Amino acid sequence: MPKSIINNIELYYETAGQGETVVFIHGLGSSTRDWELQIPAFSKHYQTVTFDLRGHGQSQKPLGPYSMSLFAKDTAELIKSLNVGSVHVIGISLGGMIAFQLAVDYPELIKKLVIVNSAPEVVVKTLKDRWNVFLRFAIVRLLGMRKMGEVLSKRLFPKDEHENLRQTFVEHWAENDVRAYLDTLRAIVGWSVTDKIHNIKTPTLIVAADGDYTPVATKEAYLSKLENGKLIVIEDSRHALPVEKPDEFNQKVLEFLKY
Question: 206 in a domain, yes or no?
Fold first, then answer.
């Protein structure tokens, strides 16, 4: 699969299918593999593009600082390099944040926007917020990426039947570069485009898991600021929704893109 020099770094990406282009943006500490259960379904109808963010997967991992604007610019330059005009964008978690930043900075590149278990800001407001951020940095620095993966896997995939998903998640997470991961985490904390999302005119689908880290009410609050937004909630699911409930997720999003 190809690598290209995009925004002065080497980005790894994969394409499949034909038709209008759908660009998928993965979450923190992940890679194109976030979307393995989506590509077979979506590539029947669209050209799909998945890529590894800077600092992730098989893409280059330059020294920071990183920023959400930088991730959005990487994504925009990749889209432009494809020579396909505007595209549909689907982002989960960190990928959803980047998608929001992309919609603010480069609205002309987006036909439709899908935000999965994400938000237009990560602002530390409470002692609990501060503690959660501290824990994430501390676990990675002191105990390493595999331990962080083990901690997260139990929250993402708590059921007995999720055992294989937990094991796969931990193995993938352990591959992360610690320095690049922390540089990315620093880019997330304190970021916000909440005061700008009212300018987003693009049709936007917010996909929420009822068991996500943040409650559905949080998504409803920012949905009210979007001119052309819609919210769907998938029950009995958690943060890694596209992996946990791929069939339902794929059906709902394909329906949104079609009409």
Answer: yes
Each of the 259 residues of the chain gets a pLDDT tens digit; together they read 689 999 999 999 999 999 999 999 999 999 999 899 999 999 999 999 999 999 999 999 999 999 999 999 999 999 999 999 999 999 999 999 999 999 999 999 999 999 999 999 999 888 888 888 888 899 999 999 999 999 999 999 999 999 999 999 999 999 999 999 999 999 999 999 999 999 999 999 999 999 999 999 999 999 999 999 999 999 999 999 999 999 999 999 999 999 8
Q: What is the CATH number of the domain that holds 7?
A: 3.40.50.1820
- For the chain, how big is the Rg over CA atoms in Å? 17
Domain encompassing residue 249: 3-122+193-258
Domain count, the chain: 1
Place of tokens 């396909």: 84
